[in-house]
Design brief:
- Chains A, B: It is an enzyme of class 3 (hydrolase).
- The structure is a homodimer.
- Chain A is an alpha/beta fold.
- Chain A has a single domain, classed as Nitrilase/N-carbamoyl-D-aminoacid amidohydrolase, CATH 3.60.110.10.
- Helices cover about 25% and strands about 25% of the residues of chain A.
- The first copy, chain A, contains 9 helices and 14 strands.
- In chain A, the strands form 3 sheets. A 6-stranded mixed beta sheet of chain A has the order 5-4-3-2-1-14, sandwiched between helices. A 6-stranded mixed beta sheet of chain A has the order 6-7-8-9-12-13, with helices on one face. A two-stranded antiparallel ribbon of chain A has the order 10-11.
- In chain A, helix 1 links the parallel strand 1 and strand 2.
- In chain A, helix 1 packs parallel to helix 3 and helix 5 packs parallel to helix 6.
- At the A-B interface, helix 5, helix 6, helix 7 and helix 8 of A face helix 5, helix 6, helix 7 and helix 8 of B.
Chain lengths: ~300, ~300
């Protein structure tokens, strides 16, 4: 059994410690339901701070974790190990290396014995670099985060082949395919997805549809389970999509969250359900990579379009 | 206005000339509805012969066209030019070049002035090479056809950027992405899709869902219209999916066939609807090709898995 732990909003005045208590509550509920793995959302220790403009870098950096587990997150790791339940946790990560500072939108995969087995750093950063004061909220991931430098990896864990991606990564067919080519059976992802797209308001009514469509297609086209955990509800004035879900290798939605708050959805994700889909796809035989070369060519950019 | 011309089955005792008369009938109906373009299905001049095993190569070759237009197909081309309506037509193509014979599953794009502006040769051949007499029908595309050698191209036609693919090509995210990277606004495809998958019968109930899911995701993930024309109904004992459809750049289904016979579905495909999706995607800026390299690497095959 696997649990997707959707979370309601985290307010600015909630402490890290209080958030960790919420995570532990969801973890315990998952353990009571005999789950071996819990998926938490993207950046789930704080409000999603790319939604507002912060000038002071020291203030920005307060949303990041310098170590994991840290003193404040350690109780989560300890409770999970005690309950013999693994988890996937999204968080903002700051790294100092040879005098350079890098900031990533990251997730960790932790096995049932408490070992950290995998890390993903978000590859596809949506939004913009510059402050857009005319918008009702910001989407400053391109300003606050560096592009992840770990690619799309898989790990042998939880009796299968597990991959991770984060939020906007899920909209790109390349994400699932790179994982699929490594035999992924279970893709774990968290998201913070506003119900409004300030630049393209006509698309607002389709936010939920596009969320599901991308994950369903990624599942079917690679024969893998795809699990998505939302941070949902109105967080510091920004309304976010819930609809956390568990999608089978057929592309069918097997479970979906009903609320916009903290909510566990649980499903028995039988990894053998991947077999007919991977068999029919037969990726090694049926793909014709000679005709895909454009996909891995660096685009020619003019300076204007980079910003 | 664009028309998708679904076709009901073509029986073995129907002549090419009779089939061309059906195509002309659909073409005229589209002209009456002020369409500028009609999309016909895959291999729509004959029954879909890969569904049975034929030993005699001369008999196989009777399903192929040696020239286009040929004396028997010329009336279609002439009627279209007269009506100032373009079309996309799927057919089996045989080519002799320097003493070598190649056979492709092809489609042609013909502009309103009668000029042939584009050709696609199916890249992704499903099915198997060997006869499987235990199956209720065959899927011998890998036996009868060569892998297309033209890649995925686009053409400036019908006031936009038009691409083609055929049947199984539509299940691969790579197809849409390679077209999307060339700015495609309108993807035209035909299909012959059995309602049964003999090797994986558990998947039968999902044949229609998977048909739509692939095209919807391809549309949304590249901000393009996707049009699919089925050869539908029970053809020489093989039941085929209908559900010919017109899908918007949002991924929404705008029109879908209601019958399993010859049927025209018509929609005003406004190419400007691609703009917000292409804007949001911003493919040149947001893709991270460095991490997609697996997608264009040749797989390492052992001999067994090739056959």
């Amino acid at each position: 059994m696997i649990a997707v732990a959707q979370m309601g909003p985290i307010s600015l005045n909630q402490t890290r410690q209080e958030v960790v208590e919420r995570l532990i509550g969801l973890l315990r509920e998952a353990a009571r339901q005999d789950c071996e793995l819990v998926l938490f959302p993207e950046c789930c220790l704080t409000p999603f701070f790319p939604h507002w403009f912060i000038e002071d870098q020291r203030e920005i950096d307060q949303y990041f974790e310098r170590e994991m587990p840290s003193p404040v997150t350690k109780p989560l790791f300890e409770e999970a190990r005690k309950l013999k339940i693994g988890f996937c946790l999204g968080f903002a990560e700051i790294v100092e290396n040879r005098g350079e500072t890098r900031r990533y939108n990251s997730s960790l995969l932790v096995e049932r014995d408490g070992q950290i087995v995998g890390k993903h750093r978000k590859i596809h950063l949506p939004g913009h670099v510059e402050h857009r004061p005319q918008n009702p909220f910001q989407n400053l991931e391109k300003r606050y985060f560096d592009v992840g430098n770990l690619g799309f990896q898989v790990w042998n864990a939880f009796g299968g082949v597990v991959g991770m991606c984060i939020c906007n990564d899920r909209r790109w067919a390349e994400t699932y395919r790179v994982l699929g080519l490594q035999g992924v059976e279970l893709v774990l992802l968290g998201y913070n997805t506003p119900m409004q797209i300030p630049e393209y308001p006509d698309l607002n009514p389709l936010v939920g549809f596009h969320n599901q469509l991308s994950m369903q297609a990624g599942a079917y086209q690679n024969g893998t389970w795809v699990l998505g955990a939302a941070k949902a509800g109105i967080e510091e004035g920004v309304e976010q999509l819930g609809e956390s879900c568990i999608i089978a290798p057929s592309g069918e939605i097997r479970a979906v969250a009903k609320t916009n708050g903290d909510e566990l959805i649980v499903h028995h994700c039988d990894l053998d359900e991947t077999i007919p889909y991977k068999g029919l796809l037969n990726l090694e035989v049926n793909r014709q990579v000679k005709y895909y070369q454009l996909i891995t060519q660096e685009p020619e950019l003019d300076c204007d379009s980079v910003l």
